[in-house]
Amino acid sequence: MNEMMMLAVWLVGLAVVAFSVPAKALDPRTTKLAWPITGRRLRTVLGPVPVGLAEAAVLVLALVPAFPRLRFAVLGLLYAGYAVASAAMRGRPCACFGRTLVTRFGWGHAGACAILAFALLAAALRTPPTVTATSLVALVAVAGGAGASMILWRRRQHAGQRATDPARIPHIQHIVVYGSTGCPGCRGVWAQREQLAAIAARPVEFRLLEEGQSVEQAGGAIPAAIGYDRDGAAVYGPVVGLTAIRGLLTATARTGGGAPDEPPAAVRTASVEPTDAHSPRRHDPTLLRS
User: Fold this and answer.
1) Is 256 left (phi over 0), alpha (psi -120 to 50) or beta?
2) Do both 31 and 42 map to the same domain?
């Protein structure tokens, strides 16, 4: 591996981490809700806050103009951890980038992280580029990754403000609440689905996303609710989290509206409950009307 290849791997590895840190920090509520590690003890060590702090520490070390081999090695170990986590949690929503970039863990994640880990650790064992070159590339990578993350987050924020304009609520004809297995925040919503549906003035459907389905269907985060018009077009949301979902359902009752021949609000629930641990089996997407 020549010097240019080492610097390219260094640039890509740092840019991704620099993108990830502010993405989680700027949207902590969504990140916490979607974080795939559910055990209380595990979240103490591997929750969004400790993971974010560890990533930030790696970035700080990367910017120190010294110890080039150590910097490559630490970043390589971080990616090795990413690879293991991606393989172990494949199928679950990935909250590494908050709501800024939504995806699911899979073998593609694990493979890409493993390749970067191998390349970075190999560079650490060889003679790495000069301290000056490594530090300049690190500065560019961190500034670029963090800057891109903030720009995308602001765009999401502005889009979210437009999508949750209260003037849109009277146009809602039905509401879909999205969740997923392995999502800690979804369990609380599913446990209260009968009560939540009862306070709404529109039909409410509770839908679990399957393993292969993108969280983007729910607007980029779960649990979330989206209001649709008669033609099935999204006209409101998403709103994320139990409190926001309850607020939307309550707002439909306050605003009234809807089609005059609309049936009473009904609840439709997925046949499988969100669970604490990820199950590799595929879930029956059939929706059962209660």
Assistant:
1) left
2) yes
